[in-house]
Automatic annotation (TrEMBL):
Protein name listed in UniProt: Uncharacterized protein
Gene Ontology BP term (one): nuclear-transcribed mRNA catabolic process
Organism classification: Eukaryota, Viridiplantae, Chlorophyta, Chloropicophyceae, Chloropicales
UniProt keyword annotations, A-Z: Exonuclease, Hydrolase, mRNA processing, Nuclease, Nucleus
Species name: Chloropicon primus
Compartment(s): Nucleus
Amino acid sequence: METEEKIRKEFAQRGIKLSAVDESEVMDSNVITPGTPFMHRLSTALQYYIHKKINEDPGWRKINVVLSDSNVPGEGEHKVVDFIRRQRGLEGWNPNTRHVLYGLDADLIMLALATHEPYFYILREVVVQTKASSMQADVQMHLFQMNQEENKKKSQRELLLEISRIDRKPYQMVHISTLREYLILDMGNTAVKPSFKVDPERLIDDFILLCFFCGNDFLPHMPTLEIREGALNLLISVYQHTMPKIGHLSKGEHINMKRMEVFVERVSMCEQAIFQKRNFLQQRQKSRQRQQLEADRRRQLDQQARARASAEAASAAKAAERESNRSAADLLRDRLLKKGGGEGSKGDSSPAAGEKEEGACKEATKEEEENFKKQLSETVKKSGDKLKEILFAPDKIRLGEDGWKDRYYAEKFHVSTTAAIDKLKSEVVQNYVEGLCWVMKYYYQGCPSWSWYFRYHYAPFASDLRGLDKLDIQFDLDKPFKPLDQLMAVLPPASSHCMPPAYKELMTSSDSPIADFYPETFPVDPNGKRYSWMHIALLPFIDEKRLLASIRPLESTLNAEETRRNSLLSTVMVIHKSHPLAWSLLELEAKTEKKACAIQAEKNNCISGTAVIPDGAVGLCPKVIRSCWDVFPDVQRNSALGFSYQFPAEQVHIPRPLKGTEMPAKVLRDGDTPMAPEIWHETRGHGGGRGGHGGRGGYGGGGRGRGWQGHHGGGSGHFAQQEILQHNAHGMIYGNGGGGR
């Protein structure tokens, strides 16, 4: 904000009045978090849209639409795969179901792999690094700001035609089956032939585990492993050498600790070489930067000398001109005096040329507004580049030099004695390995604990992971936070506008009993990274007991809407009244003693579960669905049925294709095995990525207090559609919305 204010003042001094700062909530991306008014409105809008489409679009009449909004705990994409896991293997489930999941997050690919469903696709936007079209922005702004009365006069077709003029983004489809082929070829391309039969499905599980070592939403990466230094290449290379001797590292969610320790020990042998190369590159970069700074200094001195000489020449010329004009001025003054002009006559008191009077700024043109945005963006980007500070800051740890490990723990964890360092290392290793197990269970079986979190800002070294089979690792399931509790745990005070008044006071008042949870300033550790967005914010970890003790008394101050926003609700399913399931639900609604029934998969597009009829006067099929905005009409004579939907009971996930699966035709040949990449620390340069022989297929592209609490729960609409894919009779489409809890 300070940067923006400074640039705005510069434009004002030049006489340019920019448009006012947008103070709306859309300027704060933190509103995309469960419990905020924005997410409540989004959920209401999604329900309206679903009912509208089922009523008006014939293509929606035979499908089941499942809406799991931000009041249902769980990350959106994890709710999707939880649905799939619970359906797999049940009577009536089609093992050849096609799944299409929309989203750009890389973890969607990991989750898809973990299901071991071969017919899985990720629909992604193609990310193109080009400037956004100004026409597109203009059209979007026009559509949002059009007069509502004018919109009412237009037909839906006319409005849709206007929307269709917006530039469409290109999409790509990731075929998980092709990725599975690549991974099986690559991971199975071992240095020697194993003495046992390699399980292709366990190769997939092992790949997912290796990726978690490089860092994820719940664990920091180990100092040894930097993804930009080809850490994954190193891990796969070590795996190819160790797997034939020790076997697979995992089976589904279960990690073999003895084998993993052998694997990590082999990785740790590279630590010294990795750190030494980092130091070498940093010193080389520092030397080049010094040379550049010296060249810049000399160039600046030359420019100053030339400017000074030019100014002196101009000053001499002006002095000579003033001297020659002085005699003429004296003559003119004498003549005026003779005519009676007094010396006390006042000259013109108007402002000097070029001075801007108060309020004289002109409205900024569109081009000037664009220039302002460009200058602001470039300034923010430049201020986030901390290369010089990183290069010339004192390196207190000196990784790769004798004693680097003790210096690391002393500097990062603030312990100094040998005994304290040893004790700390064992605690960090315990917590880190717990994290690996937690994440594997989370991806394969669902959340194993709502209260677990990694308690440190930094990870241990690979060489510290010893005695893993002796660790006692267990999880207590616990319960998820309520939405407002979670907001208090993850939002900064600057986003307190999302909170009810009493909660906001707790976040912003200096007298708050938990004021220490929301510091105005806090240390940031660059940790050797060039850009500020990569730095580590050393925020205090939230004390759950203190937080909840302060919040609970405030729940009585909430109004009806805030109370609903703070509730944990259930998933909703919506179908058309012509759906095979509809009649039995209407019969159930007519009964008074029973309001829930098991859903038979054969009547419900191969989907099992439990339907619960809603209480109250609204019922299954209200006559009218009210619109959220004046611009959209109410849905009259509603034909959509909405009810609470409960997933089937959790079952043990089978980490392989189910019996009866017709595996996709293979795309790759043996010659498509990816070439072994250069390992970063073994090369003189910066290293490269994994290459290939031109295979015919390919693939595209927490919270502070309770660890993952910053991610659980998410606004997500799950769209399950039958007969959606060309070559399959049964498919499902999942839309993953924002606002993960």
